[in-house]
Amino acid sequence: MALFRRVRDEATGEEIIETWLAGQMLLDYPLLNKGSAFSDEERREFNLLGLLPPHVSTVENQIARNYENYRKNETDLERYVFLTALQDRNETLFYRLVGEHIAEMMPVIYTPVVGVASQTYSHIYRAPRGLYLSYPHRDEMDFILGNAPNEEVEVIVVTDGERILGLGDLGVGGMGIPVGKLALYTLCAGIHPSATLPVLLDVGTNNEDLLKDPLYLGWRHERVRGADYDDFIERFVEGVMRRFPNALLQWEDFSRWQARRLLDKYRDRLCTFNDDIQGTGAVTLAGLLAAVKVSGSRISHQRVAILGAGSAATGVSDQIVAAMMSEGLSEAEAKSRLWLVDIGGLLHTRRTDLESFNEMYAQPFERVADWRLAQDKITLEDVIKNAQPTILIGAAAQAGAFTQEIVREMARHVERPIIFPLSNPTSMSEAAPSDLIRWTEGRALIATGSPFAPAHYEGRECAIGQCNNVYIFPGVGLGVIASKARRVTNEMFVAAAHALSDMSPALTNPCAPLFPSIENVREVSRRVAVAVATKAVRAGLAAPLSAEEIEQRVEAKMWQPRYVRYRRIV
């Protein structure tokens, strides 16, 4: 029997929650707990008299009290622990508080602070959240999935903890990522928290520090690899398809060797996507679309150099290719405009060290055979001089890689160079925006992966937009579940990118950032969701819906964190 159900009062249309929980059990259930805000009537009806202080608080009182206590914490990790404890105690209040202080608190509940929290997970652990599927329990997959705290799951975020935010193998500590990601689904797109499920696939860890830590909470074993790993993933996917056949499954922070392979393996079997690949690609594409509009051009007219050739870089490439094809280029023509450079130099067809997920972006060697090179490999500087790209993207975590010489060379050939140093954290950024503005005489159009202060040039202040996946994945998820789409496609991400680019402040103000203010993220998510749902319907991946029906379904799915009246089921 479900712990609660949401209904409408037949006479007034008011939302009401019906539940059989009462007394301490109700106070201990974070999805329903109101704390001191339970009314006098509810306190009597649900056996709460005497279990709470007598004064009935408003939610505004509670927000003020909790914000006051939040500010008393001295470190970001302490603030993370405080907010996590609030989420585990009263989810409605958690989302109200964070929503009212979103610019201040989003970096605390997710990046960058969630990285530190994941590294110290076994030391700050307070309460369980989600499901931990451990390799020794692989034969009990269905039983464990049946223990999910909520029955009607619509969005699952899963990780195996191997590549957490570029911090490496954090084992069971990776659970902080699905928990944080799903909090953003609710905060930014209004997906009800009861419809979300974080999952940690514990296949061991190769992190020796964790294996030696007496407080480590995960399976103390080196990582399972090869056929055994694949079999475990297959059991998980099959279990999800049986237990939650209509759920959206998002893969998160898998290693570069697994991420693309798993996406390709399962994308046509269930409704699934990888945010590190497709979400990163789409939000980058949105910034590029806005930038080329500002410059008076089109994405299909661009030449793109990308430093990096991992899953994030190829994900960005996938989205750019899809967008170029939507403007009339063939796939081959679009790929010919992308120049990817990794530690071995430019990806080209004579290299024998490329991997299956990036060799598709290797340039024919004949195109570069007559380039004059300073060394054996073809460097980023060689690409800038010879291919003369209009767009330069950094996704290799090589701090300072966009040097003054490289940027000035690019700016010699382009009126409005588009430069996106996307690597995180700030210390790994390929260049500082203030330098990029100065080296291009104020002409560069810039977005970054990490937050940066505005840059200044000749009395002008240039705000720098952050290329943050939070502008994309919550809206994509909302659009998918609102339309009940059966699959997630690259074209849906391109539609999401166009919707986001249309909201760029830079389209109307040359000194404004390429991305909207984070305070507008719910409206961004709504528009992205409508675009994604519309694309799903047009592609035949969802039942026919009119534009009005799509809008209505998206609105209906956007939960507002507010207290409603309760009615007891006896």
Average pLDDT: 96
> What characterizes the major β-sheet?
7 strands, mixed
Secondary-structure-based class equals alpha/beta
* Strands side by side in the biggest sheet: 10-9-8-11-12-13-16
Percent helix range: 40-55%
> How many beta-strand segments?
17
- Spatial extent as radius of gyration: 25 Å
End-to-end Cα distance: 13 Å
Give the number of helices: 23
Which residue ranges are poorly predicted, with pLDDT under 50 across at least 5 consecutive positions?
Answer: none
**What is the approximate shape?**
globular
Strand content: 5-15%
Task: Explain what you see.
With 570 residues, the protein is α/β, with parallel strands linked by helices. Helix content is 42%, strand content 12%. The chain contains 23 helices and 17 strands. The protein has helices at residues 23-27, 40-45, 59-72, 76-89, 91-100, 102-109, 113-119, 121-124, 141-145, 176-189, 208-212, 226-243, 256-266, 275-294, 311-326, 331-335, 380-387, 404-413, 433-439, 473-483, 490-501, 521-538, 547-557; strands spanning 4-8, 15-19, 131-134, 155-159, 196-202, 248-251, 272-274, 304-307, 338-342, 345-346, 391-394, 418-421, 445-448, 455-457, 460-462, 465-466, 565-568. The chain has a seven-stranded mixed sheet with strand order 10-9-8-11-12-13-16, sandwiched between helices. A five-stranded parallel sheet has the order 3-5-4-6-7, with helices on both faces. Helix 14 (275-294) crosses helix 21 (490-501) and helix 17 runs parallel beside helix 18 (404-413). The longest helix is centred in the middle third of the chain and has 20 residues, at 275-294. The mean pLDDT is 96.
